[in-house]
Every structure is written in C-alpha cells, then in structure tokens.
Design a protein that fits this description.
CATH topology of the largest domain: TIM Barrel
Helix content: 40-55%
Radius of gyration: 26 Å
CATH superfamily of the largest domain: Aldolase class I
Number of domains: 2
Number of strands: 8
Number of helices: 13
Bound molecules: phosphoenolpyruvate, manganese (II) ion
Oligomer: single chain
CATH architecture of the largest domain: Alpha-Beta Barrel
CATH class of the largest domain: Alpha Beta
Largest sheet: 8 strands, parallel, barrel
Length: 369
C-alpha cells in the first residue's frame, strides 16, 4: 500500500502535530472563544464534534449541521484547519460541503464495517485526509479493515488515532492504552502517522500530560486533545477537557526526543514493560476469579479441590507451549506452580467462606418461663 503524507500547507513536520478543541461544538460563542484561545497558543488544527455518538438516547447528541457554519467561521477568523467526526454518508457530504479540512472516524464507527464502507464510498474521488481512531475493542484487524476500506476507495492521506480500548476491568484509565496494539500498527504501517488522544484514553485531566509524554516517547507523530474554553461547563466529556492555557502547559511540559529511534529508547521500552506488567496483573486477577468460581462448583458437586490429573496436564501442556514461544519449560513450570498454589489457596478460602455461612447459628438461651 502506498499512502501519501498529509498535505496541510503551513503545518510543519515537527512533532507533535496538535489537534485540539472541544469534545462537542455546543454554541457559536463556545466554539469561537475556544478556537481563538487555541490559535493564540499556536494550535493549527481545531477539532469539534458536530455529530456525537452517545451510548444511550436522550443525551446531547451534537448540534448537527448548523455547527458546521461555526467551523467555517473558525477557519475564516483564525486561519486554523478544522476537523470533525463523521459516521455516515450524510455527515461526509455535509462536512465536505462546509469546507471541513480533515475528517475523523470515531471509535464506535471503526468497529462497524458497514459504516466504514459507507464512509469510504462517500469519499470516492475526494482528496481529503482522514484520521481513523482505534476500534473500541482491542481487535487490530478492525482497525486494519478500516484502513483498507478507505485505501481501496482512493483515500491515501490517512493517519491513525490511538484513544485506548474499552475494558470491563476497573482501571485508572477510561480506556486502556494497550500500547502494544498501536505499536503493532506502526510496525505494519510505518508510513502512517500515529496520533494519541490522551483525553479519551485517560478520561481525566490529570492523566493528559503523562499519556502525551508516553506517546511522544513512543515516537508518535501527534496528539488530539480535548480543549474547552470552560471545561467545567462542557456538555460532554467534561472531566477530561482542559483549558487552552492548560493545553499550553501540557505542550510546554513535553520532552521530545527526536534523535533516538523509539524502540531503542529505554524510556519507551520501560513504558512497554509497565503496560505489559499491568496486562499480566489483570489477566492473573481474572484467572483467580475463574478459580474461585471453580471452587464454588467443586463444593456444590462434592469434588475435592486438588485434581492431580488436571494439574499434570496443565504443567505439561503449558510448558511445551511456552517452549514453542521461546521460553524455557522450567521457567513456565515454576510460574505455573506459584499461580496454581495461589488458585488452590483462593478455592480454599471460598470453601471456608461457604462453610462458615452454612454453619447453624448457636441458639440463644431463652430464659425459662
Ligand atoms: C471524540 O473524539 O469526541 C470521540 C467521540 O472520540 P472516540 O470516538 O475516541 O470516543
Ligand atoms: Mn469526547
């Protein structure tokens, strides 16, 4: 595949490329005020959601087409480029008619091949940069599929936005970074610029700098950050939006290491290790949860906790699997032994708890009378 670099005259190739603006266009005043403050701190690309995909009906789902006129004013009055999210053919047509300079495909759309194809068809013969956010679920092939659909429709100016992946586990992030997924995308598509959206990833203002720095350490090309003139009054995603001044502080606080190749940078490798360790911990806790469920099952069916045959099978099966993955069989055995003994301990706790609950309560002595 042969992509073209994104052509926006006046924008230099220096990292990070910054796209900033509110989650949603709410009012003409809010859009213009935010845009002017952003232009004053040097931002060149303004974002604002015109059509907002909401999980449930009844909430604010964007102003819709009338807000496109506000974006036109932003271009006219600040000289910034503007971008908005599109999810249907109608959105694409209206955004193009209004002179939107870049389009982005949101995470809820990237997961839907029908919707991505509809957008791709609407873009046939149109030369406009398109940013593709990662799909909500950690399924790399959906992200790849969206690139291919657009590419096949003739869209050659493509960039990717890593905004994290949803997870049922409680974590500090609104959406888990899972850095290994965008790293794999960078390996497969080295010429596609990768941007990070720390706002949706962290879901919290105080995580924006740290996540942006991690992205820069991984040699990401840019950042898409939600900025609002009055974040506390935002109609959507208010916990994660920052003021234009706060954005300036974030950008000033970033250390950009341009001389070192990402994967060779120690900081970047350590970030990957941190991420993978967190992943291991999450998986271990999931495994323990399942073990406790097995404990309940065994108790209900009068089975003993330790089933040696099953344990033997686990050890031999996993250690040969581990060997095929370039690890020593002994190492895998040792790891499994400690995991197994913790599982057994957890199942014993389950049994104790259930037995405790089932114990007949001692009757209180009633006074004779
Ligand atoms: C957004 O950028 O406002 C948005 C809805 O993002 P995402 O698709 O990443 O949730
Ligand atoms: Mn948002």
């Amino acid at each position: 595949m042969k992509f073209e670099s994104i052509l926006l005259p006046g924008i230099d190739a220096e990292r990070p490329l910054v796209i900033a603006g509110p989650c949603s266009a709410e009012t003409e005043e809010q859009v213009l005020a935010t845009a002017k403050q952003l232009a004053a701190v040097g931002v060149k690309i303004f974002r604002a959601g015109v059509w907002k995909p909401r999980t449930k009906p009844g909430g604010f789902d964007g102003i819709g087409s009338p807000a496109l006129e506000w974006l036109r004013r932003v271009k006219r009055e600040t000289g910034m480029y503007v971008t908005t999210e599109v999810a249907t053919e109608k959105h694409v047509d209206e955004a193009l008619k209004s002179g939107v300079d870049l389009l982005w495909i949101g995470t809820r759309t990237t997961v839907n091949p029908f919707a991505v194809q509809e957008i791709a068809d609407a873009l046939k013969g149109v030369d406009i940069p398109v940013l593709i956010k990662n799909p909500m679920s950690p399924d790399i092939e959906l992200w790849v599929g969206a690139i291919e659909r657009l590419y096949n429709a003739g869209v050659k100016q493509i960039a990717l936005v890593h905004r994290g992946f949803s997870s049922s586990d409680m974590t500090v992030y609104r959406n888990l970074p899972q850095w290994h997924i965008p790293i794999e995308m960078k390996r497969r598509y080295p010429s596609l610029p990768m941007l990070c959206d720390p706002s949706h990833m962290g879901g919290r203002r105080d995580l924006i700098l740290k996540l942006s720095q991690q992205a820069m350490d991984l040699n990401y090309f840019g950042l898409m950050i939600e900025v609002h003139c009055c974040p506390d009054k935002a109609w959507s995603d208010k916990e994660q939006q920052i003021t234009p001044d706060a954005l300036k502080q974030v950008l000033d606080g970033l250390v950009i290491r341009d001389t070192v190749q990402t994967t060779e940078s120690l900081a970047a490798l350590r970030d990957q290790i941190d991420d993978l360790d967190n992943e291991l911990l999450r998986l271990l806790s999931k495994r323990m949860r399942v073990s406790r469920e097995i404990g309940h099952y065994k108790l209900e069916h009068g089975m003993p906790i330790l089933q040696t045959q099953r344990y033997d099978h686990i050890l031999t099966d996993r250690s040969s699997h581990g060997e095929r993955m370039n690890m020593s069989g002994d190492f895998i055995k040792q790891v499994l032994e400690v995991i197994h003994s913790e599982s057994i301990r957890q199942q014993m706790v389950v049994m104790e708890e259930v037995k405790e609950k089932e114990k007949p309560k001692p009757k209180k002595n009633r006074p004779n009378g």
